[in-house]
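User: I'm preparing a small set of examples for a lab meeting where we compare how different chains pack in three dimensions. I only have the primary sequence for this one, and I'd like the structure in token form so I can line it up with the others. Please keep the answer compact; I'll paste it straight into my notes.
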Amino acid sequence: MNTTPARRSLIRAVLLALAVATGPAAAHHSATMFDRDHARVVEGTVKEFQWTNPHAWLQLDAAGEQGKPVEWSIEMGGINSLARSGYRPGTFKPGDKVTVFLAPHIDGVPAGLYIGARLPDGTVLGRMP
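Assistant: Understood. Below is the structure token output for the 129-residue chain.
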């Protein structure tokens, strides 16, 4: 499955709409769109690491069905909490081969909630299985 810029924009728009729609119900958006009971490992190449508020995002190219590349959009925490946990804007560099542990999106799109990662040098950040 080839993820075009338009599709990535659509995925982000849907996630933003969900966050806005649930905003009045809580101080922050819910993570109920992620399946925490079926966390999985995704191996791939860092496409982009977006060190932004309110959440950092990791864009990861991974092999999909029949080996076709799939771009994963992985939502992380806020940069303040990430920085306190040792993350920096250069933690994930484009081209890095990484292994990410995530709670996948419940509707099956290639997106998830970050739990942890193993960097190319073997460093583990967050929680890995």
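A couple of notes for your slides: The chain has one domain: 5-126. The beta strands are 40-50, 57-63, 69-75, 97-104, 111-118, 124-126.

User: Perfect, thanks.
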